[in-house]
Design brief:
Outer membrane efflux proteins (OEP), alpha+beta
């Protein structure tokens, strides 16, 4: 059985065919050009924002929050009562038509509308943070899948090379040109590479399944992913600028709005010691004479003075203030840690960015040298491992560079430049700090 996955061979063949099709005319070139293009990160983000479940859940939570805010701020409806008395007697009927209109003398309804405004602001800020978190999850998933795909390619090439050398050594051992132990050793290394390749196939399948879930698609509907490239790494903002931007983050604004909402809710419950005053007015027809009626109704606070509600809301206000103050204190540390991590990755970019090319050169040179007898089997195997490790190290670094940059942008609440896939204001734009 061929140890190289047929699906990967087919994708590689398709890639070569598409490159050739760009130089071809006629029906063949047009037919190949219709094959799905590799899914890059911007394309994945567009799909996730259009139909991804994480974005849909964020939108739904925003709708729920806004609806609850509207419930709090609604004015009470007036009540109309029609009543007929003296039924079943010889007396003339008494007919009452009464209107009940709630009167807000304590200002409780005004405080409720103020609380509703703060609740809408909190819901909008939390939804903005939820969407940002959803985007980050999609990006992490795409990076994982793209890295797994390229890792599979690296291990596939390594396995093919080891199998080729193993077949060559087996033939040379049969002819007595090399010791049998050499052929056994190269065959063992080829088998070890097959095991690593099988693990890489499983990792890619899991990564693609998770990515498809976040994109709202089935796994078989996803095309080949684009190559994972390291992001651009512009200079990080200075500490003062970063801290100023961070204070406009969605979660900071949500915590501020939550405190304002809790303050207004406490005012509501404090003014709720006395019940709602109702103004009553209407008509009364009794003994054939039409008269008017007027009245005032209000519940007496003898047994319930709204103490439980006031205590509850006071605790909610204390919790909201504690959460807000905790986030404020943590901002400096979060931003500084993100800046230091980003600076370290940026400093290493010049060196790590050449790992793939250098690793491929090492592997190619070692294979030629081993066939020509210039290096030993151990030296060649070490060179193959060093080549694979270097290429995988560049993949890990590219992934880490993306995540580090995105974490810095999330920490400061702004994009470093227009190449960022996050839906945040640009660092240089006035709206980023307004």
């Amino acid at each position: 059985m061929d140890p190289i996955p047929r699906c990967f061979r087919a994708l590689a063949t398709l890639g070569h065919a598409l490159c050739s099709a760009a130089l071809l005319g006629g029906p063949t070139g047009r037919l190949l050009a219709q094959a799905p293009a590799p899914l890059d990160l911007p394309g994945a983000m567009a799909m996730a924002r259009a139909a991804g479940p994480l974005r849909q859940m964020a939108d739904a939570r925003q709708q729920v929050g806004q609806g609850r805010a509207r419930e709090v701020g609604q004015w009470l409806n007036p009540t109309v009562e029609w009543r007929r008395e003296n039924l079943g007697s010889d007396l003339l009927p008494d007919i009452f038509t009464t209107f009940y209109v709630p009167i807000d003398l304590s200002g409780r309804r005004v405080a409720q509308r103020q609380a509703a405004t703060a609740a809408r602001q909190r819901a909008d800020a939390e939804a903005e943070g939820d969407r940002l978190g959803a985007d980050l999850e999609v990006i992490r998933s795409w990076l994982r899948a793209a890295a797994a795909q390229q890792t599979l390619g690296i291990l596939t090439a390594q396995t093919e090379a080891l199998q080729e050398i193993a077949r060559s050594d087996a033939a040379r051992a049969a002819e007595g040109l090399v010791a049998e132990v050499v052929a056994v050793r190269t065959a063992l290394e080829a088998d070890r590479a097959r095991v690593a390749l099988a693990s890489a196939v499983g990792e890619l399948a899991q990564a693609r399944t998770q990515l498809a879930r976040y994109l709202g698609r089935a796994e078989h509907e996803l095309p080949l992913l684009a190559s994972l490239e390291a992001p651009t790494l512009p200079a990080a903002p200075d500490s003062v600028t970063a801290q100023a931007r961070a204070r406009q983050r969605p979660d900071v604004r949500a915590r501020e709005a939550a405190v304002q909402e809790a303050q207004r809710r406490l005012a509501i419950e404090q003014r709720g010691v006395f019940g709602e005053l109702q103004l009553q007015g209407g008509t009364k027809q009794t003994s054939g004479v039409m008269t008017g009626q007027v009245g005032v109704a209000m519940p007496m606070p003898l047994f319930n003075r709204n103490g439980g509600a006031r205590q509850r809301v006071a605790g909610e206000l204390a919790e909201a203030r504690a959460l807000r103050d905790d986030l404020r204190r943590a901002l400096d540390g979060l931003v500084n840690a993100a800046r230091r991590s980003y600076g370290a990755v940026r400093d290493a970019s010049a060196t790590v960015g050449t790992f793939e090319r250098r690793g491929m050169d090492v592997a190619q040179s070692a294979r030629v040298a081993y066939r020509e007898g210039h290096i030993t089997l151990t030296e060649w195997l070490d060179a193959e491992r060093a080549s694979a490790d270097a290429r995988q190290a560049q993949l890990r670094w590219a992934t880490e560079a993306w995540l580090t940059r995105l974490e810095l942008e999330r920490a400061i609440g702004a994009r470093l430049d227009a190449s960022s896939p996050l839906d945040l204001p640009l660092l240089s734009s006035p709206s980023a700090g307004s």
